[in-house]
Protein backbone atom coordinates (compact mmCIF):
# COMPACT_ATOMS: atom_id res chain seq x y z
CA UNK A 1 0.00 0.00 0.00
CA UNK A 2 1.11 3.56 -0.61
CA UNK A 3 1.25 4.12 3.16
CA UNK A 4 4.57 2.37 3.48
CA UNK A 5 5.97 4.48 0.68
CA UNK A 6 4.67 7.74 2.08
CA UNK A 7 7.26 10.43 1.56
CA UNK A 8 8.23 11.60 5.03
CA UNK A 9 10.13 14.72 4.09
CA UNK A 10 8.99 18.12 3.05
CA UNK A 11 6.08 20.34 3.88
CA UNK A 12 2.56 19.11 4.59
CA UNK A 13 1.24 21.30 1.80
CA UNK A 14 3.23 22.91 -0.97
CA UNK A 15 1.20 24.78 -3.56
CA UNK A 16 2.52 26.80 -6.49
CA UNK A 17 0.37 29.12 -8.54
CA UNK A 18 -2.90 27.26 -7.88
CA UNK A 19 -5.68 28.78 -9.97
CA UNK A 20 -9.31 28.06 -10.66
CA UNK A 21 -11.62 30.07 -12.86
CA UNK A 22 -15.38 29.78 -13.06
CA UNK A 23 -16.27 31.51 -16.31
CA UNK A 24 -14.87 35.01 -15.94
CA UNK A 25 -14.51 34.77 -12.19
CA UNK A 26 -10.99 34.05 -11.01
CA UNK A 27 -12.03 32.25 -7.83
CA UNK A 28 -8.44 31.34 -7.01
CA UNK A 29 -5.83 33.30 -8.85
CA UNK A 30 -2.29 31.97 -8.50
CA UNK A 31 -1.90 31.07 -4.83
CA UNK A 32 1.36 29.76 -3.33
CA UNK A 33 1.21 28.03 0.04
CA UNK A 34 3.78 26.35 2.23
CA UNK A 35 2.34 24.68 5.29
CA UNK A 36 4.85 22.89 7.54
CA UNK A 37 3.83 19.59 9.14
CA UNK A 38 1.98 19.70 12.43
CA UNK A 39 0.90 23.32 12.13
CA UNK A 40 -2.52 24.93 12.33
CA UNK A 41 -2.54 27.16 9.29
CA UNK A 42 -5.34 29.66 8.80
CA UNK A 43 -6.74 30.95 5.51
CA UNK A 44 -8.47 34.18 6.31
CA UNK A 45 -10.74 36.03 3.95
CA UNK A 46 -14.25 37.35 3.45
CA UNK A 47 -17.07 35.42 1.81
CA UNK A 48 -16.29 34.73 -1.81
CA UNK A 49 -12.55 35.26 -1.44
CA UNK A 50 -11.83 31.81 -2.83
CA UNK A 51 -11.16 29.96 0.43
CA UNK A 52 -13.47 27.03 -0.23
CA UNK A 53 -12.32 26.64 -3.83
CA UNK A 54 -8.71 26.55 -2.66
CA UNK A 55 -9.51 23.87 -0.09
CA UNK A 56 -11.53 21.80 -2.53
CA UNK A 57 -8.62 21.79 -4.96
CA UNK A 58 -6.19 20.69 -2.25
CA UNK A 59 -8.62 17.93 -1.20
CA UNK A 60 -8.76 16.60 -4.82
CA UNK A 61 -12.43 17.55 -5.19
CA UNK A 62 -11.76 20.12 -7.90
CA UNK A 63 -9.02 19.98 -10.53
CA UNK A 64 -6.98 23.20 -10.69
CA UNK A 65 -6.91 25.11 -14.00
CA UNK A 66 -3.28 26.02 -13.45
CA UNK A 67 -0.54 25.51 -10.92
CA UNK A 68 0.37 22.45 -8.91
CA UNK A 69 0.43 21.25 -5.35
CA UNK A 70 1.85 18.48 -3.23
CA UNK A 71 0.11 17.25 -0.11
CA UNK A 72 2.41 15.30 2.22
CA UNK A 73 4.68 14.87 -0.78
CA UNK A 74 2.00 13.47 -3.10
CA UNK A 75 1.28 15.36 -6.28
CA UNK A 76 -2.36 16.42 -6.51
CA UNK A 77 -2.67 15.70 -10.20
CA UNK A 78 -0.48 12.58 -10.44
CA UNK A 79 -1.48 10.64 -7.33
CA UNK A 80 -4.88 11.87 -6.14
CA UNK A 81 -5.63 8.49 -4.56
CA UNK A 82 -2.55 8.77 -2.31
CA UNK A 83 -3.56 12.31 -1.41
CA UNK A 84 -7.04 11.10 -0.47
CA UNK A 85 -5.56 8.36 1.67
CA UNK A 86 -3.64 10.92 3.74
CA UNK A 87 -6.19 13.68 4.17
CA UNK A 88 -9.64 14.33 5.51
CA UNK A 89 -11.95 17.18 4.66
CA UNK A 90 -14.76 18.68 6.68
CA UNK A 91 -16.74 20.88 4.37
CA UNK A 92 -18.73 23.96 5.21
CA UNK A 93 -22.00 22.07 5.38
CA UNK A 94 -22.19 18.99 7.54
CA UNK A 95 -21.56 16.17 5.11
CA UNK A 96 -23.50 13.53 6.99
CA UNK A 97 -26.43 11.29 6.19
CA UNK A 98 -29.29 12.95 8.02
CA UNK A 99 -31.45 9.83 8.02
CA UNK A 100 -28.88 7.64 9.75
CA UNK A 101 -27.88 7.82 13.40
CA UNK A 102 -24.60 9.41 14.43
CA UNK A 103 -23.16 5.99 15.17
CA UNK A 104 -24.26 4.56 11.82
CA UNK A 105 -22.65 7.50 10.00
CA UNK A 106 -19.33 6.76 11.68
CA UNK A 107 -19.60 2.99 11.16
CA UNK A 108 -20.33 3.62 7.48
CA UNK A 109 -17.15 5.66 7.11
CA UNK A 110 -15.09 3.27 9.24
CA UNK A 111 -16.11 0.40 6.96
CA UNK A 112 -15.30 2.43 3.86
CA UNK A 113 -11.83 3.01 5.32
CA UNK A 114 -11.41 -0.71 5.84
CA UNK A 115 -12.32 -1.36 9.48
CA UNK A 116 -14.19 -4.64 9.64
CA UNK A 117 -17.09 -5.87 11.77
CA UNK A 118 -16.54 -5.18 15.45
CA UNK A 119 -13.52 -2.95 14.91
CA UNK A 120 -15.65 -0.54 12.83
CA UNK A 121 -18.20 -0.39 15.64
CA UNK A 122 -15.50 0.10 18.25
CA UNK A 123 -13.92 2.91 16.22
CA UNK A 124 -17.31 4.62 15.94
CA UNK A 125 -17.98 4.27 19.67
CA UNK A 126 -14.52 5.59 20.61
CA UNK A 127 -15.04 8.65 18.44
CA UNK A 128 -18.53 9.23 19.84
CA UNK A 129 -17.11 9.22 23.37
CA UNK A 130 -14.17 11.45 22.44
CA UNK A 131 -16.50 13.97 20.83
CA UNK A 132 -19.00 13.88 23.65
CA UNK A 133 -21.74 12.41 21.47
CA UNK A 134 -22.17 9.03 23.16
CA UNK A 135 -25.60 10.00 24.51
CA UNK A 136 -26.83 10.94 21.04
CA UNK A 137 -25.26 8.00 19.21
CA UNK A 138 -28.59 6.30 18.48
CA UNK A 139 -30.35 9.49 17.37
CA UNK A 140 -30.82 10.32 13.72
CA UNK A 141 -28.53 13.16 12.64
CA UNK A 142 -31.50 15.28 11.55
CA UNK A 143 -32.34 15.63 15.25
CA UNK A 144 -28.86 16.91 16.15
CA UNK A 145 -28.16 20.53 17.11
CA UNK A 146 -25.76 22.61 15.01
CA UNK A 147 -22.92 22.07 17.45
CA UNK A 148 -23.47 18.31 17.63
CA UNK A 149 -23.53 18.05 13.83
CA UNK A 150 -20.28 19.95 13.60
CA UNK A 151 -18.64 17.68 16.17
CA UNK A 152 -19.89 14.58 14.40
CA UNK A 153 -18.71 16.01 11.09
CA UNK A 154 -15.21 16.54 12.47
CA UNK A 155 -15.28 13.09 14.11
CA UNK A 156 -16.21 11.70 10.68
CA UNK A 157 -13.00 13.22 9.32
CA UNK A 158 -10.95 11.45 11.99
CA UNK A 159 -12.07 7.86 11.47
CA UNK A 160 -8.52 7.33 10.32
CA UNK A 161 -6.22 9.99 11.75
CA UNK A 162 -5.35 12.07 8.68
CA UNK A 163 -1.96 13.56 7.96
CA UNK A 164 -3.67 16.77 6.92
CA UNK A 165 -7.13 17.84 7.99
CA UNK A 166 -8.95 20.47 5.93
CA UNK A 167 -11.58 22.37 7.86
CA UNK A 168 -13.74 24.74 5.85
CA UNK A 169 -15.14 27.40 8.19
CA UNK A 170 -15.40 24.98 11.10
CA UNK A 171 -17.38 27.28 13.37
CA UNK A 172 -19.58 29.27 11.00
CA UNK A 173 -23.09 29.32 12.37
CA UNK A 174 -22.20 27.96 15.80
CA UNK A 175 -23.07 29.62 19.09
CA UNK A 176 -20.12 30.84 21.21
CA UNK A 177 -20.16 27.77 23.49
CA UNK A 178 -20.11 25.33 20.59
CA UNK A 179 -17.43 27.39 18.90
CA UNK A 180 -15.15 27.19 21.95
CA UNK A 181 -15.60 23.44 22.08
CA UNK A 182 -14.69 23.06 18.41
CA UNK A 183 -11.61 25.23 19.00
CA UNK A 184 -10.55 22.97 21.87
CA UNK A 185 -10.94 19.97 19.62
CA UNK A 186 -8.86 21.53 16.85
CA UNK A 187 -6.06 22.39 19.28
CA UNK A 188 -5.95 18.89 20.71
CA UNK A 189 -5.77 17.46 17.19
CA UNK A 190 -2.83 19.70 16.40
CA UNK A 191 -1.19 18.55 19.64
CA UNK A 192 -1.56 15.00 18.34
CA UNK A 193 0.49 15.96 15.30
CA UNK A 194 -2.23 16.51 12.70
CA UNK A 195 -1.55 19.31 10.24
CA UNK A 196 -4.65 21.47 10.01
CA UNK A 197 -5.53 23.87 7.24
CA UNK A 198 -8.59 25.82 8.21
CA UNK A 199 -10.45 28.60 6.50
CA UNK A 200 -12.29 31.24 8.40
CA UNK A 201 -13.87 34.60 7.91
CA UNK A 202 -13.51 35.29 11.63
CA UNK A 203 -10.35 37.16 12.49
CA UNK A 204 -10.65 36.11 16.10
CA UNK A 205 -10.65 32.47 15.08
CA UNK A 206 -7.49 32.82 13.00
CA UNK A 207 -5.88 34.80 15.80
CA UNK A 208 -6.81 32.19 18.43
CA UNK A 209 -5.93 29.03 16.53
CA UNK A 210 -3.55 29.53 13.68
CA UNK A 211 0.22 29.62 14.02
CA UNK A 212 0.40 31.18 10.57
CA UNK A 213 -2.24 33.03 8.62
CA UNK A 214 -2.59 33.67 4.91
CA UNK A 215 -4.96 36.50 4.08
CA UNK A 216 -6.72 36.04 0.78
CA UNK A 217 -9.04 38.35 -1.09
CA UNK A 218 -10.47 38.03 -4.61
CA UNK A 219 -8.59 34.78 -5.11
CA UNK A 220 -5.16 36.26 -4.36
CA UNK A 221 -2.96 35.90 -1.31
CA UNK A 222 -2.37 39.42 -0.09
CA UNK A 223 -0.36 38.71 3.06
CA UNK A 224 1.02 35.88 5.11
CA UNK A 225 2.64 35.56 8.50
CA UNK A 226 1.99 34.93 12.15
CA UNK A 227 -0.80 37.06 13.55
CA UNK A 228 1.86 39.13 15.34
CA UNK A 229 3.79 39.66 12.10
CA UNK A 230 0.66 40.70 10.28
CA UNK A 231 -0.19 43.17 12.99
CA UNK A 232 3.35 44.57 13.06
CA UNK A 233 3.46 44.93 9.30
CA UNK A 234 0.33 47.03 9.42
CA UNK A 235 1.83 49.53 11.81
CA UNK A 236 2.47 49.57 15.50
CA UNK A 237 0.13 52.16 16.88
CA UNK A 238 -3.58 52.17 16.53
CA UNK A 239 -5.88 54.68 18.13
CA UNK A 240 -9.32 53.33 19.03
CA UNK A 241 -12.09 55.84 19.77
CA UNK A 242 -15.72 55.47 20.75
CA UNK A 243 -18.02 58.45 20.35
CA UNK A 244 -20.84 59.30 22.71
CA UNK A 245 -22.95 60.58 19.80
CA UNK A 246 -22.80 58.17 16.86
CA UNK A 247 -24.44 60.67 14.52
CA UNK A 248 -21.28 62.79 14.50
CA UNK A 249 -19.10 59.95 13.22
CA UNK A 250 -18.67 61.36 9.73
CA UNK A 251 -17.49 64.68 11.11
CA UNK A 252 -15.12 62.92 13.53
CA UNK A 253 -13.77 60.78 10.73
CA UNK A 254 -13.01 63.86 8.61
CA UNK A 255 -11.28 65.69 11.48
CA UNK A 256 -9.16 62.65 12.35
CA UNK A 257 -8.05 62.15 8.79
CA UNK A 258 -7.20 65.84 8.45
CA UNK A 259 -5.07 65.94 11.58
CA UNK A 260 -3.25 62.61 11.17
CA UNK A 261 -3.23 62.10 7.43
CA UNK A 262 -4.14 58.42 7.78
CA UNK A 263 -7.42 56.77 6.86
CA UNK A 264 -9.89 56.08 9.65
CA UNK A 265 -11.89 52.87 9.82
CA UNK A 266 -15.42 52.71 11.14
CA UNK A 267 -16.36 49.72 13.22
CA UNK A 268 -19.50 47.80 12.49
CA UNK A 269 -21.18 49.14 15.64
CA UNK A 270 -21.28 52.61 14.13
CA UNK A 271 -19.94 54.67 17.03
CA UNK A 272 -16.31 53.50 17.07
CA UNK A 273 -13.41 54.56 14.88
CA UNK A 274 -9.86 53.42 14.66
CA UNK A 275 -6.89 54.74 12.75
CA UNK A 276 -3.20 54.27 12.46
CA UNK A 277 -1.07 56.89 14.18
CA UNK A 278 2.71 56.83 14.12
CA UNK A 279 3.43 58.74 17.32
CA UNK A 280 1.70 59.51 20.63
CA UNK A 281 1.92 63.21 19.72
CA UNK A 282 -0.18 62.55 16.67
CA UNK A 283 -2.69 60.64 18.75
CA UNK A 284 -2.81 63.54 21.16
CA UNK A 285 -3.44 66.02 18.34
CA UNK A 286 -6.19 63.83 16.94
CA UNK A 287 -8.04 63.64 20.24
CA UNK A 288 -7.54 67.36 20.85
CA UNK A 289 -9.10 68.12 17.47
CA UNK A 290 -12.22 66.17 18.42
CA UNK A 291 -12.48 67.86 21.80
CA UNK A 292 -12.12 71.29 20.14
CA UNK A 293 -15.02 70.39 17.87
CA UNK A 294 -17.13 69.38 20.91
CA UNK A 295 -17.28 65.73 19.88
CA UNK A 296 -17.51 63.82 23.13
CA UNK A 297 -15.59 60.61 23.54
CA UNK A 298 -16.98 57.71 25.53
CA UNK A 299 -13.71 55.84 25.39
CA UNK A 300 -10.32 55.91 23.72
CA UNK A 301 -7.22 53.75 23.78
CA UNK A 302 -3.89 53.22 22.04
CA UNK A 303 -2.81 49.74 21.10
CA UNK A 304 -1.70 47.18 18.58
CA UNK A 305 -4.07 46.74 15.67
CA UNK A 306 -6.64 43.98 15.83
CA UNK A 307 -6.70 41.50 12.97
CA UNK A 308 -9.79 43.35 11.77
CA UNK A 309 -7.72 46.45 11.32
CA UNK A 310 -4.96 44.45 9.71
CA UNK A 311 -7.43 43.10 7.22
CA UNK A 312 -8.74 46.57 6.55
CA UNK A 313 -5.25 47.93 6.07
CA UNK A 314 -4.44 45.11 3.63
CA UNK A 315 -7.61 45.04 1.59
CA UNK A 316 -9.23 48.39 2.10
CA UNK A 317 -12.50 46.81 3.16
CA UNK A 318 -13.90 45.31 6.33
CA UNK A 319 -14.51 41.58 6.82
CA UNK A 320 -17.86 40.20 7.83
CA UNK A 321 -18.43 41.23 11.40
CA UNK A 322 -18.45 38.59 14.09
CA UNK A 323 -21.91 37.40 14.99
CA UNK A 324 -22.73 38.81 18.40
CA UNK A 325 -23.27 36.21 21.14
CA UNK A 326 -26.64 34.57 20.84
CA UNK A 327 -27.17 35.70 17.28
CA UNK A 328 -25.62 32.72 15.54
CA UNK B 1 -7.74 19.80 30.88
CA UNK B 2 -7.79 16.04 31.48
CA UNK B 3 -10.63 15.85 29.06
CA UNK B 4 -8.38 17.03 26.22
CA UNK B 5 -5.65 14.49 26.75
CA UNK B 6 -8.32 11.81 26.81
CA UNK B 7 -9.62 13.11 23.50
CA UNK B 8 -6.20 13.09 21.92
CA UNK B 9 -5.36 9.53 22.89
CA UNK B 10 -8.77 8.23 21.83
CA UNK B 11 -8.89 9.77 18.42
CA UNK B 12 -5.65 8.43 17.02
CA UNK B 13 -6.08 5.52 14.58
CA UNK B 14 -3.86 4.05 11.89
CA UNK B 15 -5.37 3.21 8.58
CA UNK B 16 -6.38 -0.45 8.21
CA UNK B 17 -5.52 -2.34 5.00
CA UNK B 18 -7.42 -0.94 2.04
CA UNK B 19 -10.75 -2.72 1.50
CA UNK B 20 -11.73 -4.13 -1.88
CA UNK B 21 -14.01 -2.35 -4.32
CA UNK B 22 -16.65 -4.98 -3.60
CA UNK B 23 -16.43 -4.30 0.12
CA UNK B 24 -16.89 -0.55 -0.58
CA UNK B 25 -19.92 -1.30 -2.70
CA UNK B 26 -21.45 -3.53 -0.03
CA UNK B 27 -21.06 -0.80 2.58
CA UNK B 28 -23.10 1.52 0.38
CA UNK B 29 -25.68 -1.23 -0.03
CA UNK B 30 -25.87 -1.45 3.76
CA UNK B 31 -26.52 2.29 3.85
CA UNK B 32 -29.47 1.82 1.48
CA UNK B 33 -30.92 -0.87 3.76
CA UNK B 34 -30.51 1.40 6.80
CA UNK B 35 -32.52 4.06 4.98
CA UNK B 36 -35.45 1.69 4.81
CA UNK B 37 -35.14 1.04 8.52
CA UNK B 38 -35.05 4.73 9.46
CA UNK B 39 -37.43 6.14 6.89
CA UNK B 40 -40.21 3.56 6.69
CA UNK B 41 -42.51 6.40 5.56
CA UNK B 42 -40.90 6.18 2.14
CA UNK B 43 -42.78 2.91 1.61
CA UNK B 44 -45.96 4.91 1.88
CA UNK B 45 -44.77 7.18 -0.95
CA UNK B 46 -43.84 4.14 -3.00
CA UNK B 47 -47.19 2.35 -2.92
CA UNK B 48 -49.88 4.91 -2.04
CA UNK B 49 -50.48 6.23 -5.55
CA UNK B 50 -50.50 2.79 -7.23
CA UNK B 51 -52.88 1.44 -4.57
CA UNK B 52 -55.25 4.36 -5.19
CA UNK B 53 -55.00 3.80 -8.95
CA UNK B 54 -55.72 0.11 -8.52
CA UNK B 55 -58.78 0.70 -6.36
CA UNK B 56 -60.19 3.61 -8.38
CA UNK B 57 -59.68 2.07 -11.81
CA UNK B 58 -60.89 -1.36 -10.76
CA UNK B 59 -64.03 -0.29 -8.95
CA UNK B 60 -64.94 2.96 -10.73
CA UNK B 61 -64.02 2.22 -14.36
CA UNK B 62 -63.49 -1.54 -14.26
CA UNK B 63 -67.07 -2.60 -14.84
CA UNK B 64 -67.57 -0.15 -17.70
CA UNK B 65 -64.23 -0.97 -19.34
CA UNK B 66 -64.18 -4.74 -19.10
CA UNK B 67 -67.71 -5.80 -18.19
CA UNK B 68 -66.75 -6.69 -14.62
CA UNK B 69 -64.34 -5.44 -11.97
CA UNK B 70 -62.78 -8.91 -11.72
CA UNK B 71 -62.03 -9.03 -15.45
CA UNK B 72 -60.58 -5.51 -15.39
CA UNK B 73 -58.32 -6.24 -12.42
CA UNK B 74 -56.92 -9.23 -14.28
CA UNK B 75 -56.10 -6.90 -17.23
CA UNK B 76 -54.93 -3.90 -15.19
CA UNK B 77 -52.72 -5.33 -12.44
CA UNK B 78 -49.61 -6.28 -14.49
CA UNK B 79 -49.71 -2.77 -16.01
CA UNK B 80 -49.99 -0.95 -12.69
CA UNK B 81 -46.88 -2.86 -11.59
CA UNK B 82 -44.99 -1.44 -14.59
CA UNK B 83 -46.32 2.03 -13.82
CA UNK B 84 -45.27 1.73 -10.16
CA UNK B 85 -41.73 0.71 -11.03
CA UNK B 86 -41.34 3.41 -13.68
CA UNK B 87 -42.49 6.09 -11.24
CA UNK B 88 -40.42 4.75 -8.37
CA UNK B 89 -37.26 4.68 -10.47
CA UNK B 90 -36.97 8.41 -9.81
CA UNK B 91 -36.10 7.92 -6.13
CA UNK B 92 -32.44 7.12 -6.77
CA UNK B 93 -32.04 10.32 -8.73
CA UNK B 94 -33.73 12.28 -5.95
CA UNK B 95 -31.49 10.61 -3.37
CA UNK B 96 -28.42 11.42 -5.42
CA UNK B 97 -29.48 15.03 -5.77
CA UNK B 98 -30.05 15.25 -1.99
CA UNK B 99 -26.63 13.76 -1.22
CA UNK B 100 -24.92 16.10 -3.66
CA UNK B 101 -26.73 19.11 -2.23
CA UNK B 102 -25.75 18.21 1.34
CA UNK B 103 -22.08 17.75 0.49
CA UNK B 104 -22.21 14.07 1.40
CA UNK B 105 -20.73 13.12 -1.95
CA UNK B 106 -17.83 15.49 -1.32
CA UNK B 107 -16.95 13.39 1.68
CA UNK B 108 -17.30 10.15 -0.27
CA UNK B 109 -15.21 11.52 -3.10
CA UNK B 110 -12.43 12.66 -0.77
CA UNK B 111 -12.11 9.08 0.55
CA UNK B 112 -9.68 6.58 -0.96
CA UNK B 113 -12.47 4.29 -2.18
CA UNK B 114 -13.58 2.88 -5.51
CA UNK B 115 -15.11 6.02 -6.99
CA UNK B 116 -18.22 4.30 -8.34
CA UNK B 117 -19.12 2.42 -5.17
CA UNK B 118 -21.71 5.02 -4.04
CA UNK B 119 -23.72 4.05 -7.14
CA UNK B 120 -23.81 0.45 -5.99
CA UNK B 121 -25.67 1.65 -2.90
CA UNK B 122 -28.19 3.49 -5.06
CA UNK B 123 -28.76 0.31 -7.05
CA UNK B 124 -29.29 -1.82 -3.97
CA UNK B 125 -31.81 0.76 -2.77
CA UNK B 126 -33.52 0.66 -6.17
CA UNK B 127 -33.84 -3.10 -6.26
CA UNK B 128 -35.23 -3.20 -2.72
CA UNK B 129 -37.70 -0.44 -3.52
CA UNK B 130 -38.95 -2.12 -6.67
CA UNK B 131 -39.31 -5.52 -5.00
CA UNK B 132 -41.05 -4.20 -1.90
CA UNK B 133 -43.45 -1.97 -3.84
CA UNK B 134 -44.24 -4.67 -6.43
CA UNK B 135 -44.88 -7.32 -3.80
CA UNK B 136 -47.20 -5.01 -1.85
CA UNK B 137 -49.24 -4.10 -4.93
CA UNK B 138 -49.36 -7.72 -6.01
CA UNK B 139 -50.54 -8.75 -2.55
CA UNK B 140 -53.33 -6.18 -2.61
CA UNK B 141 -54.26 -7.33 -6.12
CA UNK B 142 -54.48 -10.93 -4.95
CA UNK B 143 -56.64 -9.90 -1.99
CA UNK B 144 -58.97 -8.12 -4.44
CA UNK B 145 -59.21 -11.25 -6.57
CA UNK B 146 -56.33 -11.03 -9.06
CA UNK B 147 -54.91 -14.45 -10.00
CA UNK B 148 -51.55 -14.85 -11.80
CA UNK B 149 -52.25 -17.88 -14.00
CA UNK B 150 -48.55 -18.72 -14.37
CA UNK B 151 -48.23 -19.20 -10.61
CA UNK B 152 -45.13 -18.55 -8.51
CA UNK B 153 -42.67 -19.01 -11.39
CA UNK B 154 -44.50 -16.49 -13.53
CA UNK B 155 -44.58 -14.02 -10.64
CA UNK B 156 -40.84 -14.41 -10.00
CA UNK B 157 -40.08 -13.87 -13.69
CA UNK B 158 -42.35 -10.83 -13.69
CA UNK B 159 -40.57 -9.40 -10.64
CA UNK B 160 -37.22 -9.87 -12.38
CA UNK B 161 -38.49 -8.02 -15.43
CA UNK B 162 -39.74 -5.23 -13.15
CA UNK B 163 -36.29 -4.87 -11.53
CA UNK B 164 -34.70 -4.66 -14.99
CA UNK B 165 -37.23 -2.02 -16.07
CA UNK B 166 -36.61 0.00 -12.91
CA UNK B 167 -32.86 -0.29 -13.37
CA UNK B 168 -33.10 0.99 -16.96
CA UNK B 169 -35.38 3.91 -16.15
CA UNK B 170 -33.31 4.72 -13.05
CA UNK B 171 -30.48 6.05 -15.23
CA UNK B 172 -32.71 8.84 -16.56
CA UNK B 173 -33.18 10.14 -13.04
CA UNK B 174 -29.57 9.64 -12.00
CA UNK B 175 -28.61 11.91 -14.90
CA UNK B 176 -31.28 14.41 -13.83
CA UNK B 177 -30.11 14.08 -10.22
CA UNK B 178 -26.59 15.04 -11.29
CA UNK B 179 -27.75 17.95 -13.43
CA UNK B 180 -30.65 19.43 -11.44
CA UNK B 181 -30.05 21.53 -8.37
CA UNK B 182 -32.82 20.23 -6.13
CA UNK B 183 -34.52 16.88 -5.56
CA UNK B 184 -37.92 18.47 -6.11
CA UNK B 185 -36.93 19.55 -9.63
CA UNK B 186 -36.02 15.93 -10.35
CA UNK B 187 -39.47 14.90 -9.13
CA UNK B 188 -41.30 17.51 -11.18
CA UNK B 189 -39.40 16.52 -14.32
CA UNK B 190 -40.14 12.88 -13.56
CA UNK B 191 -43.88 13.45 -13.31
CA UNK B 192 -43.98 15.59 -16.42
CA UNK B 193 -42.17 12.95 -18.41
CA UNK B 194 -43.78 9.82 -17.03
CA UNK B 195 -47.45 10.88 -16.94
CA UNK B 196 -48.01 10.92 -20.72
CA UNK B 197 -45.91 7.79 -21.08
CA UNK B 198 -48.09 5.72 -18.71
CA UNK B 199 -51.45 7.12 -19.79
CA UNK B 200 -50.81 6.85 -23.51
CA UNK B 201 -50.11 3.15 -23.13
CA UNK B 202 -52.02 -0.09 -22.86
CA UNK B 203 -51.82 -0.12 -19.03
CA UNK B 204 -55.34 1.10 -18.34
CA UNK B 205 -57.34 0.44 -21.48
CA UNK B 206 -57.13 -1.61 -24.63
CA UNK B 207 -55.78 0.78 -27.30
CA UNK B 208 -58.30 -0.61 -29.86
CA UNK B 209 -60.70 2.30 -29.20
CA UNK B 210 -58.03 5.01 -29.44
CA UNK B 211 -57.71 7.22 -32.54
CA UNK B 212 -55.25 5.90 -35.14
CA UNK B 213 -52.59 8.59 -34.66
CA UNK B 214 -52.46 7.90 -30.94
CA UNK B 215 -52.33 4.15 -31.46
CA UNK B 216 -49.21 4.60 -33.55
CA UNK B 217 -47.53 6.01 -30.45
CA UNK B 218 -49.14 3.62 -27.95
CA UNK B 219 -47.98 0.58 -29.92
CA UNK B 220 -44.32 1.61 -29.79
CA UNK B 221 -44.47 3.17 -26.34
CA UNK B 222 -41.87 1.21 -24.27
CA UNK B 223 -44.35 1.19 -21.37
CA UNK B 224 -46.89 -0.67 -23.58
CA UNK B 225 -44.24 -3.16 -24.67
CA UNK B 226 -43.25 -3.80 -21.07
CA UNK B 227 -46.85 -4.15 -19.97
CA UNK B 228 -47.56 -6.68 -22.71
CA UNK B 229 -44.58 -8.75 -21.62
CA UNK B 230 -45.65 -8.50 -17.97
CA UNK B 231 -49.15 -9.74 -18.82
CA UNK B 232 -47.57 -12.58 -20.76
CA UNK B 233 -45.26 -13.60 -17.91
CA UNK B 234 -48.02 -13.53 -15.30
CA UNK B 235 -50.39 -15.44 -17.57
CA UNK B 236 -47.73 -17.91 -18.65
CA UNK B 237 -47.96 -17.18 -22.38
CA UNK B 238 -45.19 -14.62 -22.95
CA UNK B 239 -43.36 -14.94 -26.26
CA UNK B 240 -39.65 -14.33 -26.77
CA UNK B 241 -40.55 -11.47 -29.10
CA UNK B 242 -42.63 -9.80 -26.39
CA UNK B 243 -39.82 -10.13 -23.86
CA UNK B 244 -37.28 -8.85 -26.35
CA UNK B 245 -39.45 -5.81 -27.13
CA UNK B 246 -39.89 -5.10 -23.41
CA UNK B 247 -36.13 -5.15 -22.87
CA UNK B 248 -35.27 -2.71 -25.68
CA UNK B 249 -35.81 0.45 -23.63
CA UNK B 250 -34.02 -0.71 -20.44
CA UNK B 251 -31.05 -1.95 -22.44
CA UNK B 252 -30.80 1.20 -24.59
CA UNK B 253 -31.20 3.46 -21.55
CA UNK B 254 -28.48 1.63 -19.63
CA UNK B 255 -26.10 1.53 -22.59
CA UNK B 256 -26.43 5.24 -23.31
CA UNK B 257 -27.03 6.81 -19.91
CA UNK B 258 -24.76 4.76 -17.63
CA UNK B 259 -21.60 6.15 -19.29
CA UNK B 260 -23.14 9.63 -19.27
CA UNK B 261 -23.93 9.30 -15.55
CA UNK B 262 -20.36 8.28 -14.74
CA UNK B 263 -18.95 11.05 -16.89
CA UNK B 264 -21.14 13.67 -15.20
CA UNK B 265 -20.28 12.30 -11.75
CA UNK B 266 -16.54 12.28 -12.38
CA UNK B 267 -16.40 15.84 -13.64
CA UNK B 268 -18.63 17.30 -10.92
UniProtKB/TrEMBL annotation, chain A:
**Which superkingdom?**
Bacteria
Q: Does the keyword ATP-binding apply?
A: yes
For this UniProt record, give its keywords in alphabetical order, as a comma-separated list.
Answer: ATP-binding, Cell membrane, Membrane, Nodulation, Nucleotide-binding, Translocase, Transport
Family matches, as Pfam families? ABC_tran (PF00005)
Q: Member of which family? A: Belongs to the ABC transporter superfamily. Drug exporter-1 (DrugE1) (TC 3.A.1.105) family.
* Name of the protein: ABC-2 type transport system ATP-binding protein
* UniProt subcellular location: Cell membrane
Q: Which PROSITE patterns match?
A: ABC_TRANSPORTER_1, ABC_TRANSPORTER_2
Q: Which NCBIfam families match?
A: drrA (TIGR01188)
One GO cellular-component annotation of the UniProt record comes to: plasma membrane
* Molecular function in Gene Ontology: ATP binding; ATP hydrolysis activity
**What's its membrane topology?**
Peripheral membrane protein
A Gene Ontology biological process term: daunorubicin transport
TrEMBL record, chain B:
What Pfam families does UniProt report for this protein, alphabetically? Answer: ABC2_membrane (PF01061)
Membrane spanning stretches? 43-65, 72-91, 127-146, 158-180, 186-205, 212-234, 240-265
What top-level branch of life does the organism fall under? Bacteria
Q: Where in the cell is it found?
A: Cell inner membrane; Cell membrane
Cite a single GO MF annotation: ABC-type transporter activity
Q: Which GO terms describe its cellular component?
A: ATP-binding cassette (ABC) transporter complex
Q: How does it sit in the membrane?
A: Multi-pass membrane protein
Which residue ranges does the record assign to the ABC transmembrane type-2 domain? 41-268
This protein's UniProt keywords: Cell membrane, Membrane, Transmembrane, Transmembrane helix, Transport
The UniProt record lists the keyword Transmembrane: yes
Q: What PROSITE patterns is this protein classified in?
A: ABC_TM2
Q: Where is the signal peptide?
A: none
Family (UniProt): Belongs to the ABC-2 integral membrane protein family.
Query: What protein name is recorded for this chain?
Result: Transport permease protein
Q: Which organism is it from?
A: Phyllobacterium bourgognense
